[in-house]
Amino acid sequence: MTPGGAKSTGGEGALFPREPRAVSPGAVHVPGWLSTARQRELVESCRAWARGPVPMRHTVLPGGGVMSVQTVCVGWHWQPYRYGRTADDVNGARVADFPDWLVELGRAALTAAYGVEGPAGSGGEPGTYTPDTALINFYDGAARMGMHQDKEERSGAPVVSLSIGDTCLFRFGNAETRGRPYTDVELASGDLFVFGGPARFAYHGVPKVYPGTADPATGMGSGRLNITLRETGLPG
Questions:
Q1: Mean pLDDT of 183-209
Q2: 3-state SS string over the chain?
Q3: For the chain, which domains are there?
Q4: Is the pLDDT at 228 greater than 90, yes or no?
Q5: pTM for this one?
Q6: Would 126 disulfide with which of 50, 84, 111, 146, CB 3.0-4.6 Å?
């Protein structure tokens, strides 16, 4: 049993457990890693963060476009396309501190995905991985995320992604282009996805969410929460 609270071979009670697999070098999908109880705990934490000090909001992009997902940040505040300690594009408040237990969860996630060592040169060794920011995105049934790279961080350490609620179609591509080749993966509630090493700057996105697939026992009656843990590489 991992600190995620579930065996890493599939969801709780699954008749045909989904097995962990490498989607590309450095990118690993671990189905059912979070137990239902751990998902409930994370949902409650996300709800608390969403109430402030910086509330969850639709991010406004340069040029005036508005993202369909709603976002709240912990540790560092992300806005296109930089990090800061204060949410200057929302209410100017300092974001909530990044808790130590999220660092431990991130390290456990890397161990589940990579074993005791991360991809060579990735900074992904579980014992030294120290995420200092979390971006929490809420998707309703109509929300989408276009293909993009996570490249505002100065650190090349892996990104840890946790899914709770409705299943989504996750599109994981390559580091050169938003187009093909890419692999489509269904991420269900409790799933872990880690990408580092040669996959760290791959384009990825969410073209579809499947409404009505959330398990209310997780605390999510509808919609999808995606929690991504990252090392910013910025001075503390």
A1: 97
A2: CCCCECCCCCCCCCCCCCCCEEEECCEEEECCCECHHHHHHHHHHHHHHHCCCCCCEEEECCCCCEEEEEEEEECCEEECCEEECECCCCCCCECECCCHHHHHHHHHHHHHHHCCCCCCCCCCCCCCCCCCEEEEEEECCCCCEEEECCCCCCCCCCEEEEEEECCEEEEECCCCCCCCCCEEEEECCCCEEEECHHHCCCCEEEEEECCCCCCHHHCCCCCEEEEEEECCCCCC
A3: 21-230 (2.60.120.590)
A4: yes
A5: 0.91
A6: 111
